[in-house]
Specification:
Layout: E1 13-18, H1 22-34, E2 40-45, E3 58-60, E4 65-67, H2 68-79, H3 94-112
Parallel strand pairs: 1-2
Antiparallel strand pairs: 1-3, 3-4
Length: 130
């Protein structure tokens, strides 16, 4: 997916995720609860052939795109507070972080399962979804 064509409201950050992945959907619910400033918007994608999410979450802040472990680091940084502790993973060489992320991503359906349909936000969550 070409994120540069997405026009985000000022100060918002978009998280694109695999909508049928239970781990991914759970992570999105976690981010929504932790995001007290409602800085994050979300886009659930189901067809991984149409996007890069077969093994990645993508974060777009209006100027730059982050994927894989870098996306998680960006999310932690933007949430602030205790969530910035994820930055400790920067001590791990990028290649190792990438390998760890991809290993989990490749096994996430087996370990956590998949939904029969794309994640559907609750009425309270809908304003945060594109």
């Amino acid at each position: 997916m070409n994120t540069s064509k997405i026009n985000l409201p000022e100060g918002k950050i978009l998280v694109l995720f695999d909508g049928i992945c239970i781990l991914c959907s759970g992570t999105i619910r976690f981010i929504m609860r932790a995001d007290r400033r409602k800085k994050f918007l979300f886009l659930a994608l189901q067809n991984s052939a149409e996007n890069q999410l077969a093994e990645s979450v993508i974060v777009y802040d209006g100027t730059a795109t982050y994927d894989h472990f870098d996306a998680l680091l960006k999310i932690g940084k933007e949430l602030g507070g205790i969530y910035r502790l994820i930055e400790i993973f920067r001590i791990i060489p990028p290649k190792w972080r990438q390998s760890l992320y991809l290993w989990i991503a490749r096994n996430r359906y087996k370990w956590f399962g998949v939904r029969n349909s794309c994640y559907i936000p609750s009425p309270e969550e809908r304003e945060r979804f594109i």
